[in-house]
Amino acid sequence: MDVTEILKSLTGRFPEAISEAIVESEIRARAYVDKDGVKEVCQYLKDSLQFDHLCVVCGVDYIKRNEIEVVYHIASYNHPVVLMLKAILPRENPEIESIVSVYWNSNWYERETYELYGIVFKNHPNLKPLILPEDMLGEWPLRKDYKGFPNKTARNLV
Amino acid sequence: MEERLEPNEMIIHLGPQHPMQPGPFRLNLRLKGETVVDADIELGYIHKGIEKILENKTYLQGITIVDRICYLVALVNEECFVGCVEKLLDIEPPERSKYIRVILEELTRIQSHLLGIGEFAEFIGFVSMFMYAIRERENVVGLIDMVTGARITHSYLKFGGVRDDLPDGFKEKTLSVLNGLKKEIDNFEQMFHTDRIYRERTVGVGVLTADAAKNLGVSGPVLRATGVPFDIRKNEPYLVYKDLDFKVCTETAGDCFARVQVRLNEIRESIYILEQCLDQIPEGPLFPENSLYGRRTPVMRVPAGEVFHRVEDPRGEMGMYMVSDGSDRPYRVKIRGPYYPTLQALPPLIIGTTVADVASISGSMDGCTSEADR
Amino acid sequence: MGEVKEQKTSTSDETSVEEVPGVITTTASAISDFLKKTKAQDLINWGRKNSMWFMTQPMGCCGVEMIAMGCAHYDTDRFGIIPRNSPRQADVMLISGYVTKKYLPALKRLWEQMPSPKWVIAIGDCSISGGPFYESYSTVQNIDEIFPIDVFVPGCPPRPEAMLQGFVELQEKIKAKKDLGTEY
Ligand code: SF4
Fold first, then answer.
1. Residue B161: closest CA among B297, B281, B51, B269
2. For A151, which of C102, C129, C135 is closest by C-beta distance?
3. Atom of ligand 1 nearest to the CA of C155
4. Minimal CA–CA distance to A73: which of A57, A62, A88?
5. pLDDT band for position B339 (cuts 50, 70, 90)
6. Cβ(C156) to ligand 1 under 6 A?
């Protein structure tokens, strides 16, 4: 499937939810997605455009713009195009719809993003910390204004 | 897991220290008799916050850190990281460097698969097989050691090339090791095919169908054992894989036996790739000419932008998403390890099986917890 | 304390249990304290140093080298050093990698489960000083304040030969009765 066709079909179907769709190269494309429309867009991608493989879900903290982005990379087992979808959230109380019901393996990615950035995924079946000890919940270590890094507990540190 | 147990149910915790994987994680199993009715995984026992550390290191220092994401495939991790930066900088390594990288990455694949096969055999009680596999692995690791000077953490790739050229006599040594390895692989295969206990513990155990596997999002040998020919080296060729002749190994059964068989075939395929590379490798410089990048890379600033680069790890699809803001440190690096989704797919697979099969199924995934935790 | 022998020791001055005429009461630790002063301890230490079974718990990159060390090529069996999977059967704990905040309680538990006498070897820069991850938010530094570490093997990762050398150093220490682990 051709990348321009994919984007055309996507923007044609969701004129409001998708914005700034750009073709980066033959196998990469990106678009911004409205935070309320993520689930429908993903469902459409999976059902109609053969995007059946979720690569990764992650967060990026843009502290200067006071925004957090959730970035989805969605690929396919059949064609080499990787689509990057970004949703912009505010830094205070970021909330977005979970896509576990569409892509099963987003479960752990969302849990991880939740504990590292504090992004709440609504309707997630089991949103609890995955890799951090429970008492570190609420520190959001991957945000840029996290205080505990670098760790000062080591002796002999200059 | 917390809700009340029914009569004759119990919970056992496997881990965090357990002989089943290289690396601690905890598997909570709820059993009814001997059957697993519920399973749940706890991670993070060796979470070291690599993504945060990378944000605070310069690009060159980052190479050292990405080595430690998964210690069995350090060179492939480096390839992914360096590939991201090269895409952002818009430089391309010269032919010879690309060939050297392919040679080293295929050697890495061989040694990782050998360890995977050996460990799997050990989990199901076939300890002598483990020793055979490690014996062969040592030879391959010795070859990598010869080029990079380290056994598992190399820091060998540089932006736009590789640190050192191949040493004298590398070709002859490699060919002799590979010839020995070919015989051993045939040997292993014969052992696996004829050992009745081994077959009973693996054939038909942990079956994954192609649709289920796609739905769970797994990749690598686990997916290929179900018959889906998904391989980044073919789908999205990087380095010189376009010019090389190799096939994607698949099996159709989707059980533990098929996964091991895929790994054995991939070792053969890697040997074939290595032989081609050693024949075709051109002479030439290691770094692009008329560029700043060389063995001693200057402190560099990378143009702002973002990139997602994928490579084929021995365990599946490895990707990195890098955001650069134009300074000398990456703004954000997200590591998409291949084992993370595979480990996530473990609970649905083991529900309904017996406790004895848990070791066999989880071993056939060929895990590396360090990379799932990062 | 497998080394307790049937031996008539006059430790009645230390025990405060009521005296029964004709019976000498004693305790295992009293016997072991007594033995430390005699030549018999040399014999015991000789036995201990030649059968140091270590617990396999790969925790990091160094863990892979630990596996390689225990296997065919480097073959620690010839020194009587055998990998065991259970802490209950092990004498030596190898801290082979980064200790995180989440793993530390489990590690302490494992240490408690090992029968004494027991020793710890810290392998790799991570367990000595934090290594490449000294500034990470989730690792624990200064492990030597938590466990009585006898031998430090630096390297990132140390080669299997270096780990073997670490074991040999530990044997020397046990022989010279200078180790920390025996007291545990
Ligand atoms: S010392 Fe180095 S090789 Fe060993 S666990 Fe730490 S980072 Fe890995």
1. B297
2. C135
3. 1
4. A57
5. confident
6. yes
**Contact predicate B221/B262, CB 8 Å:** yes
Structure confidence at residue C5 (pLDDT): 47
Contacts of C135 in chain A (CB under 8 A): 149-151, 154
Locate the chain C residue with the closest alpha carbon to A130. Answer: C102
Would you state the structure tokens that stand for residue B56, as one six-digit string? Answer: 């605070």
User: In terms of CA atoms, which chain B residue is nearest residue C73?
Assistant: B135
- Identify whether the C-beta of residue B87 lies closer than 8 Å to the C-beta of residue B307: yes
List CB contacts (< 8 A) between A54 and chain B.
217
Q: What dihedral do alpha carbons B67, B69, B74, B78 form, nearest 10°?
A: -60
In a domain, A149, yes or no: no
What's the pTM value of the predicted model, to 2 decimals? 0.88
The answer to whether the Cβ–Cβ distance between A73 and B47 falls below 8 Å is no
Using a CB-CB distance cutoff of 8 angstroms, which residues of chain A are in contact with residue B333? Answer: none
Could you please state the CATH topology (level 3) that the domain comprising B46-373 is classified under. Answer: Cytochrome-c3 Hydrogenase; chain B (1.10.645)
pLDDT at B49 over 50: yes
Name which of B46, B53, B152 is nearest C100 (Cβ-Cβ). B46
CATH number of the domain that residue A57 is part of? 3.30.460.80
CA of B134 to the centre of ligand 1 (A): 21
Over residues C30-54, the pLDDT tens digits come to 887 777 777 877 887 888 888 888 8
Q: Containing domain of residue A112, as a range?
A: 3-136
How many domains is chain A partitioned into structurally?
1
Contacts of B132 in chain C (CB under 8 A): 72
* A95-97 vs A120-122, strand pairing mode: parallel
Three-state secondary-structure class, residue C57: coil
Query: Do residues B106 and B270 lie in contact, with contact meaning Cβ atoms separated by under 8 Å?
Result: yes
Does residue B46 contact residue C60 with C-beta atoms inside 8 Å? Answer: yes
Q: C51-175 adopts what CATH topology?
A: Rossmann fold (3.40.50)
3-state helix, strand, coil in chain B (%, to 5): 50, 15, 40
Backbone angles phi, psi at C152, to 5 degrees: -110, 130
Is residue A145 situated within a structural domain? Answer: no
Alpha carbon of B16: minimum distance to chain C alpha carbons (Å): 7
User: Rounded to the nearest 5°, which phi and psi values hold at C146?
Assistant: -100, -40
- Residue C10 pLDDT exceeds 70: no
Asked if A154 has any chain B CB less than 8 Å from its own CB, the reply is no
Q: Any residues with CB less than 8 A from the CB of B348 and at least 6 apart, and which?
A: B216
Question: What residue segments make up the domains of chain C, in order of their start?
Answer: 51-175
Question: Is B323–A60 a contact, with Cβ atoms under 8 angstroms apart?
Answer: yes
For A:49-108, CB contacts with B below 8 A are 52-56, 58, 60-61, 71, 73, 77, 80, 82, 84, 103-105, 107-108
In angstroms, the separation between the Cα of residue C137 and the nearest Cα of chain A is: 6
The verdict on residue A147 lying in a domain is: no
Question: What are B89-137's pLDDT values in tens digits?
Answer: 888 888 888 888 888 888 899 988 988 888 888 888 888 888 888 888 8
Tally of CA atoms within 13 A in the half-sphere of B152 that contains its CB: 26
Tell how far the Cα of B271 is from the centroid of ligand 1, in angstroms. 29
E strand residue ranges, chain B: 9-14, 26-32, 35-42, 157-158, 161-162, 305-313, 316-324, 330-336
Handedness of CA B71, B278, B310, A104 (dihedral sign): negative
Q: Measured between alpha carbons, how far is A97 from B119 in angstroms, rounded to an integer?
A: 40
CA B298 vs CA B193, B291, B294, B301: distances in Å: 54, 11, 8, 9
Report the distance separating Cα C116 and Cα C109, nearest Å. 14
Q: Considering only CB atoms, which chain B residues are within 8 Å of A136?
A: none
Name B124's Cβ contacts closer than 8 Å, sequence gap at least 6: B198, B201, B202, B359, B360, B363
Q: Which among B51, B345, B373 has CB closest to A142?
A: B51
